[in-house]
Amino acid sequence: MNKKPPLSKSKENYPSLQKWKNKLFLMLRYSRQMNASMPIEKLLEILAKETKEILDADRCSVLLLDSEKKQLEGKIAHGINVDELFFPIDKGLAGFSAKTGKIINVKDAYKDKRFNREIDKKTNYKTKSVLCFPMKNHQEEVIGVFQALNKKEGHFNKKDEELLRILSSQAASAIENAQLYKELKKSFESFINTLVATIDARDPMTAGHSHKVTEYSVLIGKQLGISGKEMQLLEYAAILHDLGKIGVREAILTKRDSLTDEEYKQIKEHVIFTRNILNRIYFQKHLREIPLIAGSHHERIDGKGYPNALKGNAIHKLAKIITLADVFDSITNTRHYRTPMPIEKALTIIKTESNSHFEPQCVKAFMDISLDGLISVLSKDIIVKLKQQELKLFSDYTVGGFLKTIGKKYVKLSNKEKKVIERFNFYYLKGKEKDAENHKRNQRKN
Length: 446
Hints:
Layout: H1 9-12, H2 14-34, H3 40-54, E1 57-66, E2 71-77, E3 86-88, H4 92-100, E4 104-106, H5 118-123, E5 130-136, E6 142-151, H6 158-202, H7 209-223, H8 228-239, H9 250-253, H10 261-268, H11 270-278, H12 290-294, H13 317-331, H14 343-352, H15 360-367, H16 371-378, H17 388-395, H18 399-406, H19 415-445
Antiparallel strand pairs: 1-2, 1-6, 2-3, 4-5, 5-6
Helix pairs in contact: 2-3, 2-6, 3-6, 7-8, 7-13, 7-16, 16-17
């Protein structure tokens, strides 16, 4: 009788080989994601999830080091509110790893004096095995700690340490790049806000205009499905749209009477100044249309705008959004030469000038904005805060729906419609009263 041949070693080791094949697949997927461009919060979320799966751990945390405060801050941590996860680097196993730059591999956390039991008490969790690995930047400085808790089978071994070494190295590079990008973005936005503050300082009457135009533009943009880098382009172009007013004489900017033809001609030149100034700034590739967009916010769909009398599709679509936002904020706020319009008149102008001054799609998007979104921008500078129940009342209406409601005869209004009109006008007029007070204050100064 023939005996069955013994199983080959390759077949005996098949489960182990399959397990490492799965780990290799996970690590390749991990590497691809680390090379992707994404916000640091999303990046850290992926780090924790993938590391937990690769190391077969129950939980995983990513802690970043705040070198100024000398503490570790939890950005992503399974099973805990990260807002509560921060502690000095001289406390806990992760703290010891951050402070010394050493790997910590503990089989039983409660037998180690360095272990911080407070977090277990807060989360009602029992930590057993712990693997901490310090993440270092290119200067070999610790920037954070990877922490894996409770190996599902046994405890963390040398192979796990080596895996975490590879993962941490890749993660540190990705985190460092993400932090650098975040700092550059913060620096760029600080530069932009400084430019806008310079314009505000020249004419306090219009202070805040650029920010409000940006907020209205974002509301319209969202209705049109704009997001991501395109939304960022819209925001930056909107906030910089009046930068060229730096080149207009202050006597004209702050004139309290109607402008002469010559003065109006000089005012119109601010869009040319805007484009020329912005063309001298180096923008990232996806932001290079900022000068074009910001410098086109006075063009009209019917071709009667300036500086180039562009018509219809010749105007950049994002410039069309800013055009509407700019006009609406201007007519609903106090200016040197006039008081703000009643809200019904202002909304009617936006609607009736569709396809002449404004792009019809932008007008529709504006009319589809929720009324609570609109009033939140209109009343932004008002001391009286909007009550949540009133915001809920406004949220039941769109801007277009509200305009129709205002146009009804009073006797035909429901109690709810009367209330929404009364409360909206209260906040709107309250804001205009504050504008008038600021106007008088500025007049006394001058």
